Amino acid sequence: MKKIVLAVALFSLAVSCKDDFLDIKEEGVTASTAFFQTQEDAIKATSAIYSFLRSWENSAFPYQFVFGVPADDVEKGSNPGDASFINVYNDFTYTQSDSGIEGYWIGQWQAVNRANQVITNVPAIEMDATLKNRLIAEAKMLRAYFYFNLVRIYGGVPIFDGLQQNYNIPRNSTDEVYNFIIADLTAAAEVLPTSYPASDLGRVTKGAALGLLSKVYLYKKDWQKAYDASSQVMGLGYALDPDFNHLFRPDGEFGSESVFEVNCQCTSEYGGSQYAEVQGVRNQFGWGFFTPTAALENAFEPGDIRKELTILREGETTPEGDLIHKGDPQAGNVWNQKVYVPVALNNSACGSGSVQNIRILRFAEVLLINAEAANELGNTAAAVTNLNKVRNRAALPNTAAASQADLRTAIWHERRVELALEGDRFVDLVRTGQAASVLAPYGFTAGKNEVFPIPLNSIVSSQNVLTQNPNY
Length: 472
What we know:
By secondary structure, the protein is mostly helical. The protein has a domain at 14-71 and 93-192 and 448-472: Alpha Horseshoe (Serine Threonine Protein Phosphatase 5, Tetratricopeptide repeat), CATH 1.25.40. The protein has 18 helices and six strands. The protein has a two-stranded antiparallel sheet. The chain has a two-stranded antiparallel ribbon with strand order 2-6. Helix 13 runs antiparallel to helix 14 (380-393). The longest helix is centred in the N-terminal third of the chain and has 26 residues, at 129-154.
């Protein structure tokens, strides 16, 4: 299996020491001291942050290892002998030496460093002031996103605000990291526009910054601020796509529900992404990994249209007219339909499904964040209203839940089926305190598996300045 090598803007991602865990030197790039001179340099450097969003580390195997497979809704997929090393994520037997855990860790730090290059160097460039401020705000928004990934997966991590002379610094606390993320998102939201012209689709907006901010507050259980931030997003003109299938097809990209979405178009500069390819129907649309479980199938209520629009089945003919066949007799017979790209829309210049955009934050989730926060604040009316908006789009009746406890359970359940296979199930179970009970049959150990281990190589490279998470 080969990785897509994504084009990177011509600026250095180098750091000070070859052995540091943030060592991310790249060949064939211009050193930062000779770069960051012009407005075009600033634009290219910011584009390089975006390119990471579609990278192997951020959207393909390493991402699925930590956000997908450990949950009860996703299993390894493919056939038993293919990439059997993924099994350790199914049963929580991974260790601090696992390459997948290290790959995700290193990748996120590469992205943080790209953002820090922009935040540090662009202010000194003589260029259009409005564009300068916007690019810096974009970099802060994206840096916050990468730190949000890191803190949810590894717990407290070092905070690098700007370019560092020494990368071997201790881990900050989880609260300190969350506060750093909040500061970045707050600053970005004050500057970012609410929309862009078609030529700039995929750049982060005010809505994206506020939407991610509301999600961060959800994790912190700061209900009032989660409610306030999500309410601001709800006032910016977003709306649910009335057609759940259309929402995930190329024709639905950057639609009314798109709050934070990665542009994965196949161009001469960027070769799409492998987000969809690794999950696509084996030997037809992709590799067949990271498939839905029976537990997920059983979670959908009768009449929920999302069940058949989330799970793609052997022998099915899709709404677009493609017959799904089983390309490997040893592999399973269900796949993630959200990543499916119709045959007629695949771009032969890139891999199968490579044009599938990655939906990081949808308006449906903003509504559910608002509902959860409202319920915790005792605002039953707002909680029920926004929960029902999501349910009704799925052709389900209004919720029967009325008490705060029942509404909490209903909202958590709605997150599971609405956001199925989108990378939120495992971290949702952890943040809501359900992981120990739900995932115990899979091998989850309370007090350990809420976070992943810090990679051993990074601890060694830091000369043991980095400390390990408990029980690893």
